[in-house]
Amino acid sequence: MRQAGRYLPEYLEARGSRDVLALSRDPEAVVEITLQPLRRFDADAAILFSDIMVPLAAAGLDVRIESGVGPVMGEPIRVAEDLARIGSFDPAEHAPYVGEATRLLVKELQVPLIGFAGAPFTLASYLIEGGPSRDHRRTKRLMRDEPSFWVRLMDRLSEMVLAHLRAQVEAGAAAVQLFDSWAGALDPESYRRHVLPWSRRILEGLADLGVPRIHFGVGTGELLPAMREAGAEVLGVDWRVPLDAAWERLGPETAVQGNLDPTACTGSWEACEREALAVLERAGGRPGHIFNLGHGVLPETPPDNLARLVDLVHERTAR
Ligand code: CP3
What we know:
single chain; alpha/beta; TIM Barrel; seven-stranded parallel beta sheet; binds coproporphyrinogen III
């Protein structure tokens, strides 16, 4: 969950004036930035430095990532003719740097590497809205009013995402995380009809690789049982749902990842510790909890709080 980023001075130094997409195309930079948090924190896994927009940029779309804003499209995708602008995406041909960085990292790391991708709904939202959106209203309108456009777009995106994730695992990633960050904008029925079939296609398409699959979204309290049907063995939850309530909705056979509020790490260590212990309390020592933040690390986070947090969780959960 964005281990790397603006809260680390060494990241800002390595980034220089390049954006996330340019950095992602440079395997040496990817290796360095992925390793940076691991030098400070005793984390149990590393997440590949990349972005959910990488395969879309590799397929020829005009996308950039603005610091403090997020992904922004030169020209959004809103009508059938726009779909022709999404070029082909063969990971080995159009994004060889991902496999290369992954192979280099797996050699260096002492912990498992997590590969990741954006899920079709979240990617579609950036493509259609043209940038970050509060209510995803154009996306939801097209989803309901233009079924043939929606199906073509979701088919295309799920095919790309599956290829991208398979390539990461084939290069050595030990687990994958599918980020449907903005799925929480949907009601369960719309989610089941317009989103779930494609996320399921991706997750099922990874089953033969035998790696754990993690599925995450923000504000998905009401969607958790539906998201579980997509097939991941781990569901990530943000801080809005108490961890035990989320687990209750998912059942004991599903592992859960989360769910410390990232703002809890931005102030005093005492507050961070208190909130982290409350998460562990709700996990109740049950097997199948991956401690994590409920969303990405915020830029104003003191790195030392995260170092202490990792140690605290290790201390309290040692078996
Ligand atoms: O920790 C890591 O190294 C993992 C790399 C990673 C990034 N993005 C790099 C990044 C991961 C896993 C992502 C996923 C991602 N990107 C998601 C899904 C997870 C989530 O947060 O919900 C989404 C929705 C995006 C799209 C995106 N890219 C956003 C919303 C932003 C933040 C915009 C901002 O500045 O507030 C980005 C930029 C981005 N991607 C940064 C990083 C480290 C910040 C980079 C910078 O400003 O230099």
